[in-house]
Amino acid sequence: MTLTLPLTLPVSQPDDAETGDVRFGALRTHDRFDYLPITARDTYRWPNGARLAVYLGFNLEHFAFGEGLGANLGPVSPQPDVLNYSWREYGNRVGAWRCLDLFDDLAMRAGVVLNTALLDHCPDLVHACVVRGDELIGHGHTNAHRQSDFEYAHELDLLAHCRSRLARETGHTPSGWLSPWISETHHTPDLLVRNGYRYTLNWCHDDRPVRMRTAHGTLWSVPYPQEVNDIPMIVGRQMDGAAFADMIADNFDEMYAQAEHPTRGQPLVMGIALHPYLVGQPYRLRHLRRVLTPIAQAAGRGEIWLATPGDIAAHVDSVSVAEPGAIMG
């Protein structure tokens, strides 16, 4: 069989940029930061000379009884959902205190991500974190609501209220924010800076702090984990306590190797997100102790920087001031 070729080749069609066909052009973006691969940035070290910063993101939350949102242990029942409410409340009554004892044993400060409703419900718990020297991070009034559901004025009031109340009743003005359910509106970064916040934990897109653009100046995005996080792993993926601890250890070992690589080393951030109604359960706490002990020991030897998110944001801010031309991310 003879294959007959066409005498002329088809004329190539112009690409989308030439035709202006927006159906297949660049997608909508947030315009908060540009794409920049982690391999194309300037390097620096953390204050103690280490290349890996590790922090505990310790979430203290309160939920309304008989209404609103909340993580669930068992099937959701008609309100009042006593099973799931009381399981979460175990965290404030028991689990958080056991975790604080563990952090004391290991000399580990925490970044305490807290609802201001705790100041009404269990102020002793908040006070214990203040006495320990933990950093207080704004986390809305309650996790029974999503911030993304709020109108502009409501969101503005929420950010102002949480910051002023924590400052007034604890003596510590929060510089950072994690939205309830990590939910934002299109205005959230702008409103954070307008209200005096310096960094956000809402974005999980990087292993290094990233400078975000807002209508009121720079907002630092400090990496907050959605993988090394007990809610999505234990609740969402049904991971047991031993496997979650193993995951923390594997993540730590790999990030330490990446950060301290002899030719490709760079400053990285590893957060560990914890909720006391999960990791404060005795059988999970035992595994948390097992994995945090060698991390605390590495910090004691100066091999890593055990920090809080606010420490990290303050350091990268100082680096950006001292080296204004540095490619930070």
From TrEMBL:
Leading EC class: hydrolase
Domain of life: Bacteria
Gene3D superfamilies, per the entry: Glycoside hydrolase/deacetylase
TM region positions: none
EC number, UniProt record: 3.5.1.-
UniProt-recorded Gene Ontology molecular function terms: hydrolase activity
Keyword Hydrolase assigned: yes
Protein name: Peptidoglycan deacetylase
Source species taxonomy: Bacteria, Pseudomonadati, Pseudomonadota, Betaproteobacteria, Burkholderiales
GN (gene name): pgdA_1
